[in-house]
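Exercise 7. Given the encoded structure of a 194-residue chain, write a plausible sequence.
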């Protein structure tokens, strides 16, 4: 369920917010069983393999978000976004603030700072595969700084966007098991011309 609420106070301010309530129903391990449908003692190509969960775990989560857009002038805007999620007794949050400006009809620029999180997927938490799952994994976290300048005119478009991201609690495989084991830093310049 995800109700969304909106507010537009005037032409300069708008707010969008919402609430998400969910339940994850996850299988802890999986058992495989085969049946011989031919009635013979020897295995047959008509054998059927079935997989079913052995034990389940249910996890509840609640998340709330809000996005505020404020027009300082007709060509300058500030966006602020927040998200909070409660899952497995832990709270994770994301935040973003951005400034977007324009000059004339062709030039646009932006500055952005933000933090985000990514929850582990069921395969990493409980699914019994070739890599051992870990139900104690926590969310991966990232903090980023980005700038961008854009030129769009008639049939010409140019984009230049450098950014820097710091990641922590990165999920990796250590000794055959998923772990929050790494920290990474990514620095990149993205450019596009057409």
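Solution.
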């Amino acid at each position: 369920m995800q109700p969304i609420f909106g507010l537009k106070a005037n032409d300069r301010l708008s707010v969008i917010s919402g609430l998400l309530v969910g339940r994850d129903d996850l299988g802890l391990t999986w058992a495989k069983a085969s049946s011989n449908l031919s009635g013979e003692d020897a295995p047959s190509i008509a054998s059927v393999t079935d997989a079913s969960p052995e034990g389940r775990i249910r996890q509840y989560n609640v998340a709330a978000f809000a996005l505020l857009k404020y027009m300082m002038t007709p060509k300058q805007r500030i966006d602020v976004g927040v998200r909070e999620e409660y899952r497995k007794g832990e709270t994770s949050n994301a935040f973003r603030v951005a400034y977007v400006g324009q000059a004339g009809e062709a030039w646009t620029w932006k500055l952005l700072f933000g933090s985000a999180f990514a929850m582990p997927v069921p395969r990493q938490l409980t699914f019994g595969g070739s890599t051992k799952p870990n139900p104690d994994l926590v969310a991966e976290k990232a903090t980023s700084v980005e700038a961008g300048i854009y030129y769009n005119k008639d049939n010409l478009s140019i984009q230049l966007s450098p950014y820097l991201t710091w990641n922590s609690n990165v999920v990796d495989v250590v000794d055959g098991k998923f772990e929050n084991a790494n920290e990474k830093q990514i620095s990149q310049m993205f450019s596009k011309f057409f």
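Remark. The helical segments are 122-125. Students should compare their own answers with the one above.
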